[in-house]
Recover the amino acids of this structure.
């Protein structure tokens, strides 16, 4: 078998959806961080089967006390002479030590005057914190924001400070303003953050410590097992002889890796390292190829069975099982990739029409046939199947992913045996190779835990936003303002809902420019979610609307990190790559609007009678196809189309995405008119070009 190019991970290029580059640690510090991270990974697994007797919040206190100091050792401060790239400075060690003490303070059984005394005593002081409690809580606030700054940049900490300022100074606002409140003093703010279930130890951190870490460990083990390499090899093999093979390979690789990655940037970088040479040979420009890779990579955050971080928060907020959220995501994910695939097919036809050579992966050494790959390495799909089956039979998501992780670890053994036997005659396992395998497996678990640190910091910081929103009632007030803005145009409920949904989509897209997907969803849900619920949108539809627009902001210029990562692989300029990524993903931007515009839109989430689900899904497919034709300037069966047919196709797509039988009929009619106009236009051009 011909060796495939190595799969480059996002960590190797220093990019990820939620993080800045981490330090590459070595020596004593590297071993210490690795061992502590591994211990935290085992603690997370232990909590699944033997939860700590003191309760889940006690576990969160311990979890944050271990995870947060690792951030200071693993990530640079960027503070000039106080910063080091090759390891932590003295200041970093001091901050890590202070963080450990401050985080463990609520559970330390040491009485310090009227403070301390252990976890039960700390909880008993809720609402009546001792001065030392306030000091410790204030220090933890500063440390959480600094950890968030190190891992994600300054924007999210600034957003948190704005919410804190609103909580403290809200009483100074004119009292006739709807968002005015009585104001909170420092003790009340710290109490809400440090000694309640809505602050640092609220739902976002609970989800991170209970779900996200486990799925991150699973992804790391899958990469270690050889599954990521197999998925890319399979994608290359499947489309090796078609004209649009290069683009199809990139999209298929993104989808397959996305089912286990849950990270848009990581998927774009990993698939780009392998498929960029193929795309370049097919005639794709670096910016165009990078845009395709970024759009396909962002789909990873939408792809079951390991959706992005925010999907776990959706399940927690709505009190539903994770498998339910997976079911809601299935059809929209297929629509997302349908739009990208159609754009890929359009690009292939344009490249071929321009006289450039089509992708022909049969030139040079042929990849291994797909059926041989499936026969030799198809078992890598089994852990994914196990997760879904266990979820369907009622096993909790946390236990299901642990079982799947163990299976993936075991599957790494035959993967190494098969690959070694193809390159080394007489290869056999010895004590040395077994020891090396175990060490590599433990390193994979440790690396998986370290890769989750930025998400932990973001989720802890998100607790600031949720606590201030809950304590002041800001969410309900802003939701009312959003609905009021929609009502300003008309009294018709349908128009009010449509206007509110469009304003909410714009707000979420802009919000996603500044903060990571997780924080974007948390903020969007506490502010925009209530507005949609007030307009009688079902909770699942409202939550998935906020989730999808939070994710799609990842391909919105000027801060599309997936496009930046893909541009680094293809050698393209970042901004043009972002615009190409937006073009590929544009049809999908309008699909979430279907969730909320009418009750029929919920059928796209798989909710309702199957016949209704089928017709709404078919209409959505036609709408995505029409929008792809409009953005790509190509209609299948017609060829290149001019401005008028493109405008008609765009109108058809927008109409088809309104889930109503009459609108569907009108949209199909407009699409037929666009095709006729395109044929007439092509006939006129042909007659003009004929001498």
């Amino acid at each position: 078998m011909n060796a495939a190019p190595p799969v480059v991970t996002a960590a190797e290029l220093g990019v990820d959806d939620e993080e800045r580059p981490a330090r590459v640690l070595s020596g004593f510090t590297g071993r210490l961080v690795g061992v502590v991270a591994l211990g935290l990974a085992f603690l997370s697994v232990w909590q699944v089967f033997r939860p700590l007797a003191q309760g889940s919040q006690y576990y969160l206190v311990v979890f944050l006390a271990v995870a947060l100091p690792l951030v200071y050792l693993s990530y640079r401060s960027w503070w000039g002479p106080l910063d080091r790239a090759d390891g932590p400075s003295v200041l970093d060690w001091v901050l890590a030590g202070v963080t450990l003490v401050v985080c463990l303070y609520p559970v330390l059984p040491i009485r310090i005057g009227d403070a301390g005394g252990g976890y039960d005593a700390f909880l008993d002081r809720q609402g009546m914190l001792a001065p030392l409690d306030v000091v410790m809580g204030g220090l933890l606030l500063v440390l959480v924001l600094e950890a968030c700054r190190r891992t994600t940049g300054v924007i999210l900490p600034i957003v948190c400070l704005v919410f804190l300022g609103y909580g403290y100074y809200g009483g100074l606002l004119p009292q006739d303003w709807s968002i005015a409140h009585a104001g909170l003093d420092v003790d009340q703010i710290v109490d809400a953050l440090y000694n309640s279930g809505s602050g640092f130890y609220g739902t976002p951190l609970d989800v991170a410590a209970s779900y996200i870490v486990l799925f991150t460990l699973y992804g790391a083990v899958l990469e270690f097992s050889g599954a990521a390499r197999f998925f890319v090899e399979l994608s290359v093999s499947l489309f090796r002889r078609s004209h649009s093979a290069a683009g199809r390979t990139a999209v298929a690789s993104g989808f397959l890796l996305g089912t286990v990655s849950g990270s848009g940037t990581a998927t774009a970088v990993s698939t780009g390292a392998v498929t960029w040479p193929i795309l370049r040979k097919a005639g794709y420009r670096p910016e165009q190829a990078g845009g395709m890779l970024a759009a396909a990579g962002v789909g990873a955050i939408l792809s079951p069975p390991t959706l992005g971080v925010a999907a776990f928060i959706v399940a927690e907020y709505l009190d539903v099982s994770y498998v339910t959220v997976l079911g809601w995501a299935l059809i929209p994910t297929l629509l997302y990739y349908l739009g990208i695939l159609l754009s890929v097919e359009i690009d292939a036809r344009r490249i071929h029409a321009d006289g450039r050579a089509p992708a022909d992966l049969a030139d040079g050494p042929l990849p291994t046939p797909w059926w041989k790959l499936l026969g030799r390495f198809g078992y890598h799909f089994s852990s994914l199947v196990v997760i879904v089956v266990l979820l369907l039979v009622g096993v909790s998501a946390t236990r299901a992913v642990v079982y799947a992780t163990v299976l993936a670890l075991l599957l790494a053994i035959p993967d190494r045996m098969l690959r070694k036997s193809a390159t080394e005659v007489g290869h056999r396992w010895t004590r040395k190779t077994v020891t090396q395998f175990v060490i590599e497996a433990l390193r994979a678990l440790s690396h998986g835990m370290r890769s989750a640190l930025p998400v932990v910091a973001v989720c802890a910081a998100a607790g600031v936003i949720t606590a201030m929103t809950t304590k002041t009632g800001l969410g309900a007030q802003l939701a009312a303002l959003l609905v009021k803005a929609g009502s300003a145009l008309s009294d018709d409920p349908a128009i009010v809902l449509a206007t509110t949904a469009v304003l909410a989509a714009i707000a979420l897209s802009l919000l996603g420019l500044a903060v990571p997907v997780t924080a974007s969803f948390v903020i969007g849900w506490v502010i925009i979610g209530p507005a949609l619920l007030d307009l009688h949108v079902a909770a699942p539809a409202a939550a998935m609307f906020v989730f999808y627009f939070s994710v799609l902001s990842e391909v919105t210029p000027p801060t599309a990190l997936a496009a930046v990562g893909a541009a680094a692989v293809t050698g393209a300029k970042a901004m043009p790559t972002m615009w190409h990524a937006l073009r590929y993903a544009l049809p999908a931007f309008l699909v979430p609007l279907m969730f909320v515009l009418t009750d029929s839109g919920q059928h796209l989430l798989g909710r309702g009678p199957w016949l209704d689900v089928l017709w709404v899904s078919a209409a959505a497919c036609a709408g995505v196809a029409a929008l792809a034709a409009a953005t790509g300037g190509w209609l299948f069966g017609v060829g290149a189309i001019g401005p008028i047919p493109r405008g008609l196709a765009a109108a058809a797509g927008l109409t088809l995405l309104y889930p109503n039988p009459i609108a569907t009929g009108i949209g199909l009619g407009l699409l037929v008119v666009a095709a006729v106009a395109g044929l007439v236009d092509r006939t006129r051009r042909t007659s003009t070009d004929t001498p």
User: Anything to note?
Assistant: Strands lie at 111-112, 115-116, 634-635, 639-640. The CA atoms of residues 295 and 381 lie 24 Å apart. The two ends are 53 Å apart (CA to CA).
